[in-house]
Amino acid sequence: MAETSQHGEHGAPATGETRRDFLILAAGAMGAIATIAVVWPLIETMNPAADTLALSSTEIDISGIEVGQAIVVVWRGKPVFVRHRAPEEIEEARKVSLDDLGDKQSDEERAKKAEWLILVGVCTHLGCIPLGTKQGDPRGDFGGWFCPCHGSHYDTSGRIRKGPAPRNLEVPPYEFLSDTLVKIG
Amino acid sequence: MSTPVPRNKVAQWIEYRLPIFSWANHNLIDFPEPKNLNYWWNFGSLAGIILVIQIITGIVLAMHYTPHVDHAFDSVERIMRDVEWGWLIRYIHMNGASMFFAVVYIHIFRGMYYGSYKSPREILWWLGIILLFLIMGTAFMGYVLPWGQMSFWAATVITNLVSAIPWIGETLRDWLWGGFSVDNPTLNRFFSLHYLLPFVIVGVVILHIWALHHRRSNNPLGIDVKSAKDTIPFHPYYTVRDLFGLGAMLFVLFVFVFFVPNMLGETINYVKADPLQTPPHIVPEWYFLPYYAILRAIPDKLGGVVAMVASIAILFILPWLDTSKVRSARFRPIYKQLFWVFVADCFVLGWVGANPPEGSFVWIGQICTIYYFAHFLIILPILGKLERPRPLPDSIHEAVLKKRGGAPAVQPAATMEKH
Ligand code: HEM
Ligand code: FES
């Protein structure tokens, strides 16, 4: 080091050093950019492909669902629960104080029409399908759904009340096309 | 025995261009091993042989297997019923995976008992832990391939662990899936990776053995080899013993394959995957149960995942957590007991993991999880300072002679002089 700086006064060796440093740096930077350019598309190929994304909406006819009943439909390969809630269930969901909830959300925010509760039927813990849609299923301590995998309890608004799940059952994007037709996605 | 230059003309021709004969001679024939190795030293070579068995049976299975959600389950059933000897190949592959873990776990516990992770074998130890992670990943993805109910739901639950990572977790999970749930793209890439990873494992095994042959085997006394008197050549002494061990292992493997091929599996995996119906009780294969218990012991999603990964990753720093200078538990009276307590703790965790997280299983699982980490983080660092190790023998051959004792000490000592 000390030697190089001494030679620096004469010009030649010092310029040689800096030019080499520059070339190493430039080559290294190009190499890094090239690596990223190669790796990026490889990683991107693993993302959901266009056809998978295209399956992103489903229309369902809800006219046949009796009060108190629920059905399961498939949206993006996941189950979606559509529950025709009874008045008691709506009342129960609405009288809960937000302070009692882990993931604070009012029932009004979660249901566009009070009697129709539409949820992605995937436990927010590790992705099992909670029980409670079929007649005779256990519905947990809060009358909604119960996830058998690690014991998460959801209430009549699909909100997490007990167990390891961190969040409420997700509400998918949906709109009522008419009184009996719902578009999910 | 030691012929550095082969006598055969063809072999000489080859040797001159690629010194494969002297290489084999150095590593497999004359290679000096401590003379006091016991049967716990068989498990490394056994693991290597199972890897080969898995690769061969796997390649044959792949000739008949179809990685598509509509056909995977049926193609495996076809292997079982219609493909000639298909049932045998599949049962070997299935039970071979269990055997792999049994052997690797014994191999790891051996290392912990005899302090094989201590200097200068830390990198050898790290490579072993990397191998454990790779084998776990391979077995997990293989289990998804038959596309039964447990395949599907295990894949769902395990890939969802990723979603616990703050901010990017869910994006990362969808990227892993290649969709919005475990589906055909997931099955396809799992098959691709399940085919690839065993060969990555082969590569890491080569590094593992390189490190081993560089610093040589530890031994039950945990003291260094000091002279040629402490060693015997690998061939024929250990080649024969490894072959004997192989016979014993194959016996156990084939008892499973022929008599109870499905004992270690879950019956419900013979029901085709149904993305709309979670089975009432989800359990992983036996070899993942302790980690599953640790995952569930922590009542927080991210915390559970972190603890589960940490339970293995902590092995990376084991060489520094254990502050004792003495390697072998033989000379560590307290560690020797606590080692077995630790082994028992792992078994209890496995038992908890197999049961639903209710009642006493919850607190038993939590206590065992705390003990698991306390063993590494509290007990080992302190014990190394407090414990008074028993005196170490001067050399391996002296200790061996003393043990062979009973005969007057003069005679063997005299024989040794001739060397
Ligand atoms: C590290 C070595 C390996 C391990 C631990 C392993 C583990 C497994 C496991 C646990 C299964 C599920 C068995 C079942 O329940 O049916 C499986 C299936 C499968 N494996 Fe492997 N495997 C290994 C190497 C390979 C290799 C090298 C191939 C070659 C392509 C392969 C191809 C397959 C195929 C096609 C299946 C699906 C058929 C079946 O389920 O039996 N495996 N593997
Ligand atoms: S997946 Fe529902 S509680 Fe774990």
What does this structure look like?
The complex is a heterodimer of chains A (185) and B (419). Chain A is α+β, with helices and mostly antiparallel strands and 185 residues long. Chain A folds into 2 domains: 15-46; 54-184, Rieske [2Fe-2S] iron-sulphur domain (Rieske Iron-sulfur Protein, 3-layer Sandwich), CATH 2.102.10.10. Chain A is built from 5 helices and 9 strands. In chain A, helix 1 crosses helix 2. The N and C termini of chain A lie far apart (66 Å). Residues 1-6 of chain A have low confidence and may be disordered. Chain B is an all-alpha fold and 419 residues long. Chain B has a single domain, classed as Up-down Bundle (Cytochrome Bc1 Complex, Chain C), CATH 1.20.810.10. In chain B, 64% of the residues lie in helices and 1% in strands. Chain B is built from 17 helices and 2 strands. Chain B has a two-stranded antiparallel sheet. The model of chain B is unreliable at 406-419 (pLDDT under 50). The A-B interface holds A 43, 46-49, 52, 72, 74, 76-79, 122, 125-129, 131, 148-151, 164-166 and B 153, 156-161, 163, 174-181, 183, 185, 189, 275-278, 280-282, 296, 299-301, 304, 357-358. Protoporphyrin IX containing FE binds next to helix 3, helix 5, helix 6 and helix 9 of chain B.
